[in-house]
Amino acid sequence: MYLKVFVDCLEKYQKLNDTEFGRFIRAALRYKATGEEVRLTGREELLWDGMKLDIDRDNVNYAVRVAANATNGKKGGRPKNPIKANESENNPLGFSETQKSQDKDKDKDKDKDDKDTSVISGVC
Fold first, then answer.
1. Which of 66-70, 86-90, 96-100, 120-124 has the highest mean pLDDT?
2. DSSP H stretches of helix in 4-124
3. Which of 2, 47, 3 is nearest to 23 (CA)?
């Protein structure tokens, strides 16, 4: 389990001193881990409701994602691709040609273009 704390919280909570900020983050961590709310007594108490809403929203989003993943897993997940006889390690994705054969074709086309331009320049 984790607590998502964005870098902009440094600006968001900049008016808290280090002690207040420490109590605030510790309370957030405890709430995330156990659901137990810690009674805050300093200025950090004024910011707690917003942090609690963020944690609760993240928990709901996480539960929705877990449920979707579980549903997809029950369906069998992503189908496995059988390895065909013409596929090899050089051609793992099942393309009709390997990278080397494509490079050879490019070289042939380049040679063909060079020959064509020499013929044209000879005519002029």
1. 66-70
2. 9-12, 18-34, 45-74, 99-123
3. 47
Q: Region 80-109: what's the mean pLDDT?
A: 61
The tokens 């449920």 sit on which residue? 67
List phi, psi (to 5°) of 3: -115, 120
C-alpha to C-alpha distance for 72 and 53, rounded to whole angstroms: 29
Identify the CA nearest to 52 among candidates 72, 71, 30, 70.
30
Domain ranges of the chain: 9-74, 96-124
Cβ(43)–Cβ(16) under 8 Å?
yes
User: In 93-103, which positions are buried (b, 16+ CB within 10 angstroms) versus exposed (e)?
Assistant: eeeeeeeeeee
Residue 124's pLDDT is: 41
pTM over 0.70: no
**Is the CA virtual torsion 84, 88, 92, 94 positive or negative?**
negative
Tokens of 8: 């902009």
